[in-house]
Amino acid sequence: ANGIRVFDPAYLNTAAISSKITFIDGDKGFLMHRGYPIEQLAEKSDFLETAYLLIYGELPSKSQSEIWKFEVMHHTEIADDLAKVIGSMRYDSHPMSANPALQGRNLYIHDKSIMNKNIIRIIGKSATVAAASMRVRMNRPFIAPRSDMGFAENMLYMMDATSDSENYKPDARLAKALETLFILHADHEMNCSTAAMTHVGSSLVDPYSAVSAAAAALYGPLHGGANEAVIRMIEKIGKVENIPTFISAVKAKKELLFGFGHRVYRNTDPRSKIIREVAETVFTACGHEPLIEVATALKDAALADPWFVEKKLYPNVDYWSGLIYRSLGFPLDFFPVLFAVPRVAGWLAHWKQAIEASNPKIWRPRQVYVGPQVRDYVPIGDRE
Ligand code: SDX
């Protein structure tokens, strides 16, 4: 499709592992999941359907979809003891740092017979754990999840419901916007956090602990934490007239242009374009986002500068998403959590693919040793 060469045998013997889940053509800025271009999924699918596609390989039939969504949305409750762990978090602890600790509570050894049940539980509870840590930050009581709502709608409900929660319904435009963002963040081939999930999972530890490792990897500002770092960067720049000074600092390697660049995309990240369109919907619903002028001027300045063009630095998935989350009223340090919740689907898809491989192998990368040659021990009295 679109002249994209999906399988190049020459590439296979250089790639560490093969996969049927996601394909990225970095030169063409093309991304697809199980053969479906991301643009079509973002427009026509929803997060739980995309999660099913990633994990089980095909779009679900009507009955499969109903069963899948019923199962996930009826596994959103978290146990009292887990709620107590979340409730005991300091109000100002970074929500991402709490996540690994919370997941690690279930120290099972991986049991293949309950793989699908665990997948349903982890996806279902990911939004609830996230919403509960948000409620701790707001110093407000937890709101129980609603199984009669959509996945993203329920997350907005659990975070924002007021005391008369049974009458509260999130704005449909915002629920749809968050659903689209979740689709766009669901998977992205073998990125840092997915590699962590698959690496840790290869020791046959339980999937909850592997998700903790992946969440910890995602938290970094070079990865999923970039959506938070972008806003801090734009707030620090403050005004459009400060952009040239900032650009010079980036070129002098004194600053990093967060939200730009990508290990694989040598052209723009297709998700970034879609997110920019979603942002307009959210700004219409929530009101003007004051940082959009600086963000737009900064993007334009970078794209017009040969230094960035030569290094093939374009906006990535994180450049605009933070502005949306800010507009939706989430606290800044909660943005990586909004990346982690949908990415759980991709982590589980790659983990399941690896575990189901005929003979799952533990990941044990080799290294090229460049240290000192063999030598004899020197007693301390003989050392300089
Ligand atoms: C995500 O892998 C994935 O798929 C990740 C992700 C996903 O969905 O899972 O897409 C999500 O993590 C997106 C990236 C979010 N991170 C950021 O926005 C942080 C800013 N970006 C950079 O840190 C960087 O671009 C990375 C980490 C994203 C990529 O790092 P690479 O592959 O090491 O960058 P590179 O080799 O392409 O860099 C080429 C040059 C280098 O300079 P020189 O050695 O040539 O002098 O460009 C420089 C880099 O130092 N460079 C940047 C830069 N990104 C690269 N300089 C300034 N600002 C940047 N953003």
TrEMBL record:
Q: Which domain of life is it from?
A: Eukaryota
- Which UniProt keywords are present, listed alphabetically? Membrane, Transferase, Transmembrane, Transmembrane helix, Tricarboxylic acid cycle
| Pathway in which this enzyme or protein is active | Carbohydrate metabolism
Q: Name one GO biological process term.
A: tricarboxylic acid cycle
Cite the GO molecular-function annotations of the record.
Answer: acyltransferase activity, acyl groups converted into alkyl on transfer
**Family statement drawn from the similarity comment of this UniProt entry:** Belongs to the citrate synthase family.
Q: What is this protein called?
A: Citrate synthase
Q: Which species is this record about?
A: Tuber borchii (White truffle)
